[in-house]
């Protein structure tokens, strides 16, 4: 093959380059370019000088107005999974289930396949990683031994497609995982981006043709050496990400992309000895191990998608010996923490420049809402002032750079969830308090962050006065 026919493909992002480079220009990863033959990519047509371009075929253009069909859905029988997909698997669609190795993707999908098979649909589970006996063993452990799921341990896409086209069309096909699949159409080595892409394309064509719902499992790896499923993300209809902290038993399923449904819903699961259990009321779970009455914790009334969710935000503010104090966040946005800290310094007279600050969202949840600002600020000040917040209060509200506390969406749903879980009061933006009708719990409206800080500091002074008066370390300078 002449040199002109060679191309180097990044195994992380799929970007192509004409020559080898240490660093991929597309994604900035190092040592990810691998030489692959150019005409071997799927869809690559032999072109070049001397070959006339193919004459195009005309097709009819349609008006925007016209008959629209609701995508035919196939409920999985697992409500938390259906919530994330938007009501079930869509026939003829392809979904990528991405997640760290060991997070529980195979377990979840085996349970989903069994649930679907139980309703009389044909479900096929193809494992490229485990032997049939291993999958059986797991099914037995999950109590699904009797489910009519059809199993195979295969990695050749051509063999798989030949098998799938035989007999009754399967409703659900699970390919575990796309990284182990290889197709003859592509000459590249198994596991490379070109192979992953080629195999995915063949399976997507099958899904569209046969009308089956196909789920591809994709391992996410931090280092770019192994072909990541990122290249597949653009090709599939939906990308679900299965997340969780290794040490926690909660697992969160999140739609990252969804052509047929919402992308802001989450499904909450708990990994137990008997597989994944659906958590229908996640607030109870996230608050279950709460340590009541210790300084630095605040309960945030959040919204994930359409569902209210109460979580504990924990802060630790401690004097630092470092020139540049530490700022560490788990489960929240780093730049939002910096913003809240800056507002506390600039408008509330809370001096944090000599303190290390740690912020953690309990239970391994990740919060993206600005509505968590107020709860985070309350937790931070509570820790600094060594003043526990009331155990029966929830917090929500967005903090603006001027120090004002701004209202947030869906206040009523947040308050209702807090009331349901036995909270007696809510610290909310002033505008929410004045507009609330029949909130069901006591509302404490705050107009500016300074108001909240003074209140917490006063609690701290009081509790210190009660215990032998130690030196104050948080004194908001009014003004
Ligand atoms: P698995 O589904 O194999 O993960 P993935 O396919 O994402 O790589 O799950 C692996 C982990 O789940 C494993 O460490 C053991 C744990 N597990 C349980 O705790 N309980 C169970 O019932 C099962 C089947 C697995
Ligand atoms: Mg697996």
Structure at a glance:
By secondary structure, the chain is an alpha/beta fold. The protein is 27% helix and 25% strand.
Protein described:
This protein is α/β, with parallel strands linked by helices. Helices cover 27% and strands 25% of the residues. The protein is built from 12 helices and 23 strands. The strands form 5 sheets. It has a 9-stranded mixed β-sheet. Strands 17-18-16-15-19-22-23 form a 7-stranded mixed β-sheet. Helix 8 (334-348) crosses helix 12 (449-466) and helix 9 runs parallel beside helix 12 (449-466). The protein is globular. Mean pLDDT is 86; it is low at 38-47. Thymidine-5'-diphosphate (TYD) is lined by residues 99, 101-107, 138, 141-142, 271, 273-275. The site of thymidine-5'-diphosphate has 15 residues, from helix 2 and helix 3.
How many helix segments?
Answer: 12
Largest sheet: 9 strands, mixed
Assembly context of the chains: single chain
Strand content: 15-25%
Q: Which runs of at least 5 residues are low in confidence (pLDDT < 50)?
A: 38-47
Shape: globular
The pLDDT mean sits at: 86
Helix content: 25-40%
Tell me the structural class.
alpha/beta
Distance between the termini: 76 Å
The number of strands is: 23
Strand order in the largest sheet = 8-7-9-10-6-11-12-13-14
Bound molecules: thymidine-5'-diphosphate, magnesium ion
- Radius of gyration, in Å, reads 27 Å
Distinctive features:
nine-stranded mixed sheet, alpha/beta, 12 helices, binds magnesium ion, binds thymidine-5'-diphosphate, 23 strands, seven-stranded mixed sheet, 27% helix
């Amino acid at each position: 093959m002449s040199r002109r026919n060679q191309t180097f493909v990044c195994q992380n992002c799929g970007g192509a380059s004409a020559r080898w480079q240490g660093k991929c220009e597309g994604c900035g990863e190092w040592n990810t370019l691998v030489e692959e033959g150019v005409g071997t990519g799927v869809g690559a047509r032999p072109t070049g000088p001397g070959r006339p371009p193919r004459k195009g075929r005309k097709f009819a253009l349609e008006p925007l107005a016209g008959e629209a069909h609701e995508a035919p859905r196939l409920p999985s029988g697992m409500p938390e999974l259906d919530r994330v997909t938007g009501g079930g698997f869509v026939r003829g669609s392809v979904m990528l289930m991405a997640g760290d190795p060991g997070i529980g993707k195979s377990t979840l999908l085996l349970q989903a396949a069994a649930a679907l098979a139980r309703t009389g649909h044909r479900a096929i589970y193809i494992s490229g990683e485990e032997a049939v006996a291993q999958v059986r063993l797991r099914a037995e452990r999950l109590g699904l031994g009797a489910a009519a799921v059809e199993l195979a341990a295969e990695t050749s896409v051509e063999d798989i497609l030949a098998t799938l086209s035989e007999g009754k069309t399967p409703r659900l096909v699970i390919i575990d995982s796309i990284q182990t699949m290889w197709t003859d159409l592509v000459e590249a080595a198994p596991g490379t981006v070109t192979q992953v892409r080629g195999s995915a394309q063949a399976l997507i064509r099958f899904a569209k043709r046969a009308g089956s719902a196909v789920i591809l499992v994709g391992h996410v790896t931090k280092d770019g050496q192994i072909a990541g499923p990122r290249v597949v993300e653009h090709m599939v209809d939906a990308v679900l990400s299965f997340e969780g902290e290794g040490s926690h038993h909660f697992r969160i399923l999140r739609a990252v992309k969804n052509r047929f449904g919402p992308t802001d819903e989450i499904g909450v699961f708990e990994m137990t000895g008997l597989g994944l259990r659906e958590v229908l009321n996640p607030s109870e779970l996230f608050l279950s191990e709460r340590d009541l009455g210790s300084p630095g914790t605040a309960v945030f009334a959040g919204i994930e998608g359409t569902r209210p969710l109460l979580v504990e935000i924990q802060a630790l503010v401690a004097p630092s010996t470092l020139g540049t104090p530490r700022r560490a966040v788990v489960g929240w946005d780093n730049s939002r923490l910096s913003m809240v800290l800056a507002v506390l310094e600039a408008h509330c007279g809370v001096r944090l420049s000599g303190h290390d600050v740690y912020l953690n969202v309990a239970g391994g949840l990740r919060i993206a809402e600005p509505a968590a600002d107020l709860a985070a600020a309350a937790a931070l000040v509570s820790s600094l002032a060594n003043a526990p917040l009331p155990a029966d209060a929830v917090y929500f509200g967005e903090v603006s750079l001027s120090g004002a506390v701004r209202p947030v969406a869906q206040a009523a749903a947040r308050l209702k969830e807090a009331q349901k879980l036995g909270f007696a009061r809510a610290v909310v933006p002033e505008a929410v308090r004045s507009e609330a009708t029949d909130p069901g719990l006591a509302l404490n409206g705050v107009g500016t962050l300074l108001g909240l800080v003074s209140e917490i500091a006063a609690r701290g002074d009081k509790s210190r006065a009660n215990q032998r008066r130690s030196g104050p370390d948080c004194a908001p300078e009014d003004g």
